[in-house]
Amino acid sequence: MLARRTQPSLSHAVGSLAVLELGGVRFALPAADILEIAHLSSYTPVPCEDPTLLGVVLHRHGIVPLLDLGVALGAPGRRAEAPGLCVIVKTPLGQVAFAIDRILGVEVAASDGLMKTLDFPGGLTVLRPRRW
Amino acid sequence: MPLSRRVSQSAAGAGRIPLRRCLVFGVAGVEYAIDLERLTRALPLPAHPEPEVTVHETAYPLLDLRAVFGVAPSAAARRAVLAVRTATRRAALIVDEIVSLTGLDPVNVHPLPAVFAGVEREWFEGFVRSDSHVIIVVRAEGLLAGRRRDSADAGRLAAVAT
After folding, report:
1. Measured distance CA(B78)–CA(B96) in Å, rounded
2. Cβ–Cβ of A56/B119 closer than 8 Å?
3. Contact (CB<8Å) A47/B70
């Protein structure tokens, strides 16, 4: 009788991730949460308690909060007048936008290769693949 | 086209919901709208302001909105004072400039998104879109309540020092 070969345990796939970069820091978001990546020319600063909340941007027919991920990621944030390239994502508390430097790609990752790093306003979760 | 016409364009002729008459003022390059019915008087900031201004024999303590919002003081020569009162409070708000009088259609006021969960919920009611920019609609009662972004006395100290 042949011995049953044990299969190595497979990691649980978490779906497509958009891999992004800000201030030299790479991070990822579930692609399914991303509504759009677009260039935004300006934003309106809104005085508020949370320093990661910069203000709001006009996006299509809506007004979307703009976050600064830089500080929380350990990367320099953008507080220029023009946010530039922005990701608009859906969160449990509604849509939010944040600036990035560039899109590095899209890939399918496994859960054991990911490390959940930080929760941002609105419940936005940013992921960082371990091998980075 | 004047701002007041642009903002109220969607409500023109609608005749359903009365427009909110508002005064639009600026602080650090951002525009804010406050209901005109809250405003007692708008005047230039005196060259040597006292800690309060008197309007119709009533004292309004100065409150510098740059200090309230945690914005750096301005060296601008021309600033303005808005004497504002609500059912329970009154204050003379120091702002950078008076921008316009306008009519806001209440249906165009977007409520403050849920991610704004701090003291700003007391200050602001929401946003209204005006062409390519956003006007923040203030909640007068909350603004006059005196909660500040920074230290408790920042607004008054800055007002006296201006």
Report:
1. 7
2. no
3. yes
